[in-house]
UniProtKB/TrEMBL annotation:
<dbReference type="GO" id="GO:0042116">
    <property type="term" value="P:macrophage activation"/>
</dbReference>
<dbReference type="InterPro" id="IPR048511">
    <property type="entry name" value="TMEM106_N"/>
</dbReference>
<dbReference type="GO" id="GO:0032755">
    <property type="term" value="P:positive regulation of interleukin-6 production"/>
</dbReference>
<dbReference type="GO" id="GO:0032731">
    <property type="term" value="P:positive regulation of interleukin-1 beta production"/>
</dbReference>
<dbReference type="Pfam" id="PF07092">
    <property type="entry name" value="TMEM106"/>
</dbReference>
<keyword id="KW-0472">Membrane</keyword>
<dbReference type="GO" id="GO:0043410">
    <property type="term" value="P:positive regulation of MAPK cascade"/>
</dbReference>
<dbReference type="GO" id="GO:0045348">
    <property type="term" value="P:positive regulation of MHC class II biosynthetic process"/>
</dbReference>
<feature type="compositionally biased region" description="Basic and acidic residues">
    <location>
        <begin position="12"/>
        <end position="21"/>
    </location>
</feature>
<feature type="region of interest" description="Disordered">
    <location>
        <begin position="1"/>
        <end position="28"/>
    </location>
</feature>
<feature type="transmembrane region" description="Helical">
    <location>
        <begin position="95"/>
        <end position="116"/>
    </location>
</feature>
<keyword id="KW-1133">Transmembrane helix</keyword>
<protein>
    <submittedName>
        <fullName>Transmembrane protein 106A</fullName>
    </submittedName>
</protein>
<dbReference type="InterPro" id="IPR048509">
    <property type="entry name" value="TMEM106_C"/>
</dbReference>
<feature type="domain" description="Transmembrane protein 106 N-terminal">
    <location>
        <begin position="2"/>
        <end position="94"/>
    </location>
</feature>
<dbReference type="GO" id="GO:0043123">
    <property type="term" value="P:positive regulation of canonical NF-kappaB signal transduction"/>
</dbReference>
<dbReference type="GO" id="GO:0032760">
    <property type="term" value="P:positive regulation of tumor necrosis factor production"/>
</dbReference>
Amino acid sequence: MGETFSQFWKVSDPKERDGKSSLHKKSAGEEEVTNYGTINGGDSSASCVPCAGSRGCITCPTCQGTGRIPREQEKQLVALIPYGDQRLKPRRTKLYVCLAVTICLLTSSLIIFFLFPRSVAVQPAGLNASSIAFNFTTATINLNMTNMLNVTNNNFYPVTVIQLDIEVLHLSLVIGKTTRKSMLNIGPLHSGQIYYTVSSHIQDNNTYNICTWVKIKVHNVLLHIQGTLTCSYLCHSEQLSFENYQYVDCRGNATLPRPP
């Protein structure tokens, strides 16, 4: 009996050692799984551990309900979306991009078309009225004339006329000047008229004889009118120059104003 028991003890001894080694391997595997399932780089405080009660815990979406984590660590989880998910493939992307590009190009083209500065046309419209006076002592002609000026706005926004400067020349000599502070507002694609009066003094014997000699039927004086019109639009000021040659009847009577 003693020999049999000793043999049984010897036989069972390797089995026990195998069982102990398998238990040791199982514990190492469980430790490896536990470390693999941790959060924040192996932090044991964030791993899936069983909870005593169900109120303070939620089902872990990572392990599909096989473990639980504390509720305050819910925001630390990361949801993984499959590569073939439809949410990663938005529909009609090309259509939206083309539509956005088309709207931007159309808006830019309209802004450029309507805000692009166009010319403001200034055209002298001629003489409106004039009056002549002679000074026989100094052989001087005093000429007061009122002229018209047409201003055309070719822009799609209003234009304001700020100032008008006029010079009248006779035989290359300045005989009259005037400056008018005009606040004329001209609407988009509209025209306006400006009336200005210039007082001139001609001191030339030949011109005086032409205007006062009765035997001459034509009493005309050629005047050269130069002007500068200052207008403002879109917070920008611009000066427009114009000139005109005009014949004025210098007889004793006055030229009546033209009907508007």
